[in-house]
Amino acid sequence: MGIVIGPNQYGKAEVRIVSVNRDNARHTIKDLNVSSSLRGDLDAAHLTGDNGNVLPTDTQKNTVYAFAKEAPIGEIEDFALRLGRHFVGTADGITGARILIDEYSWERILVGGASHDHSFARAGDEKRTTAVTIDGGRAHIVSGLKDLVVLKSTGSEFWGYPKDKYTTLAETNDRILATAVTARWRYLHTDVDWGKSFESIRSTMLEAFATTHSLALQQSLYEMGKSVLEKHPEVGEVRLSLPNKHHFLVDLEYCGLENDNEVFFAADRPYGLIEGVVTRDDVEEAPQAWYSLPQF
């Protein structure tokens, strides 16, 4: 029986970069967290410590900053494609690259009712994401969002589930449904208006969440993914991870008050975690390595 090195990669994780466009008095900013991972002929590095094909992770970091200066960052998908193709095309022994980017959103501060030219406020915890994989001459793009917190105060039920001696949860036909959406969608090609596609997919998922009378968070997940595929032919599949942010009705009978679905305790843990893939039945299944989400 022999021992061999299995699949491997290496890179620089979480390079924080803020780029300010000062072409005119009205500045714009791009706030990113960039991670790079390189793959290829790296057996010697693991087996004998030969670093002949190991492009230093510090060089990868420096490349991120230099590329942001040499040309506008633009859409995060385009920036990731530039980085990944550069590493595969110029680093000896490197045949694949994976670039992960989170983008943090900023909104202009209003002053006297008008948006300020160079002052901004962070727009919550939501992040736009992309995972670009360069495999030889092929490029695969999986974009998405995470930490998009949504809530509907009615239009959600939960009943008809199995019960045993450990069940204490009461059935309900009217509950708060809340979650923090993490979504990834796989593009079928690279001829995409990334910004327009992202905004439309985000709006589509929000509309589906709001308008689906939900009998289970699983049902909402499917409707959100299905609506994206129905409206976006450039997308092959959608992966969703939805933690159920539970809201429990507070019992106020002890003080003589009736609580008619008005006062709730918001629990942060433990929570139900609902995950799934909504896909077209006529597209090739994507390798797990294309995704930045763990397998589920």
UniProtKB/TrEMBL annotation:
Q: Which reaction does it catalyse?
A: urate + O2 + H2O = 5-hydroxyisourate + H2O2
SUPFAM superfamilies of this UniProt entry?
A: Tetrahydrobiopterin biosynthesis enzymes-like
Question: What InterPro entries does this protein map onto?
Answer: Uricase, Uricase_CS
Question: Which segments does the entry list as coiled coil?
Answer: none
For this UniProt record, the keywords arranged alphabetically read as follows: Oxidoreductase, Purine metabolism
Q: What is its EC number?
A: 1.7.3.3
Q: Where does 5-hydroxyisourate bind?
A: 57, 158, 175, 218, 244
- The annotated active site, in chain numbering, is 12 (charge relay system), 57 (charge relay system), 246 (charge relay system)
Entry binding sites for O2? 57, 244
Presence of the UniProt keyword Transmembrane in the record? no
Biological or metabolic pathway of the protein:
Purine metabolism; urate degradation; (S)-allantoin from urate: step 1/3
In the record, biological process GO terms are: purine nucleobase metabolic process; urate catabolic process
The protein's GO terms of the molecular function aspect are: urate oxidase activity
Where along this sequence does the record place binding of urate?
57-58, 158, 175, 218, 244
- Per the record's keyword annotation, is Oxidoreductase included, yes or no? yes
Recorded hits in Pfam families, A to Z, give: Uricase (PF01014)
Q: What family name appears in the similarity comment? A: Belongs to the uricase family.
Role this protein plays? Catalyzes the oxidation of uric acid to 5-hydroxyisourate, which is further processed to form (S)-allantoin.
Q: Which PANTHER family match?
A: URICASE
Per its record, how is this protein called by name? Uricase
Record the organism.
Saccharopolyspora spinosa
